[in-house]
Amino acid sequence: MNTLALVGTRDDLLARIATLEQAGIDELLIQPVIDPPTEMAQLAKLLT
Known about the structure:
InterPro entries: Luciferase-like_sf. By secondary structure, the chain is mostly helical. It is 52% helix and 0% strand.
């Protein structure tokens, strides 16, 4: 499975999504990160 992170300003994201559409990508899965420090701590616990 290929993965890609979309990070940037609104204009950056719009440009990157347009580029993906031109390349034939027709679906995106978006999962916002609400509390990065807590989520990373939970991930670290899962991995140890």
